[in-house]
Amino acid sequence: MRYNELDEMLKGRNAQSKKLANNTYLHRRGDNIAIQLHSTDIATFTPNGDIILNSGGWHTSTTKERINMAIGNRLSQVNGVWYIGDVRFADGIIIHANGKITGGIKDNPKQDKAIKAKVKKYAQLCADAVPLPIPNSGDCWMCLMQTQDKQTLGDVIKSDHIDSHLKEHYIVPSLVLNALKEAGNTDFILTLVFNNPNKVMLDIAKQRVYTSVYRYILKRKGYAV
Hints:
By secondary structure, the protein is α+β, with helices and mostly antiparallel strands.
């Protein structure tokens, strides 16, 4: 997509805003034109031809798809890490009109490996603790409290509270519940995980917890899962 093409799309009754796809809209932002997914301007086009990209912190398949819609399938993924060409993606990265890319971050496979190992260890810790107590007011509030649209307080304010859980090996039932729900697990699985008095089908419950928690935390660490 180019600025002039988007400008042509915003005409008449749609001069300020136009729906492009599910949860995706085109908006004028002063002289700029932005593609908004949910509440995030994922691609902002400037009159000089630059494109500013932003994931909003969520490296999801939908975000990736919409960004690629904007920039012509230039965003790729390797081992959960996003790249534009050989430049590692970061929010605020700019594809300039002359093709130059600025605002990316330095690739650090060693750090990626260390982070994933730490998250795996925590996910296994949570799995080994099944059955877990039902979430209650004693849990981390960043994990427990939610907005009307079911976002956790930690997600809303982009808190780094999960880092403290990883460091302290603190198992948070609310975090596990959120991870299981985000992964689409059924109420039956939730029953197996929380307060399972007969401890039946623990192997299934532990595996679901491990996988769900691992993916849930990696996602909040900026990795695509």
